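Thread: Newbie trying to understand structure tokens

Hi all, I'm a second-year student working on a class project, and my supervisor (Dr. K.) asked me to get a predicted structure for one chain before our next meeting. I've only ever worked with sequences, so writing a 3D structure as a token string is new to me. If someone could post the tokens and maybe explain what I'm looking at, I'd be very grateful. Here's the chain:
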Amino acid sequence: VVFPGGALSSTMASQLVPQVNSKEGRGSQCKERHMLLLSPLGKLQISGCETGLHEIKLPKMSMLPSGAESSSTCEVCEGAEEMTEPLQQCTDWLRAYFCEPARIESLPVPAFHHPLLLRDSFTRQVLWTLLREVKFGEAVSYKQLAELAGNGRAARAVGGAMRSNPIPILIPCHRVILSSGQSGNYGGGNLMKEWLLSHEKLQKEKLS
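---
Reply by user tm_fold:
Sure, no problem. This is what the structure looks like when written as tokens:
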């Protein structure tokens, strides 16, 4: 389902943006912690601190997961002993995403603590708009997302924002597709993008 284009959604102004630290960048007090989450896509490398989430790094996929792999549970395989609240919230959210999508809307979005998401910029506006407005099982074109973010002529800048996204899956850049309906490029590879879109479509049909 492609998200309708046009003016900025009326719900957007009333929704809270994800919490971020008010300091620019990561200060000297930021102690980064790392964890590995074994998911249907492989091992996701997640980093963050007490203040918020830093990054999610995706593995490269050479083939689509089999049926058994795609239905497996998500388990923390490294870093459980150093879990901060934002990392725990991220883990809970990703487990719900892969295994229990109906729970996603009831879960908090972790606070973010990445410089790109702290600075006032069009890229940040695009990423937050995407997070708030394009929900599980939906898709939007680069042009439509540019319009939602307030500048319909900035489709190329939207593409740059997607490439810069430090927190994929949670900030769902995989839901941004070409106007032709083709999936387009993705940091984790085209196979992963197609798998994520198919996963959401299938799970949304089960929930409806």
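A couple of things are worth pointing out once you decode it. The radius of gyration is 16 Å. The first strand starts at residue 33 and ends at 39. Feel free to ask follow-ups in this thread.
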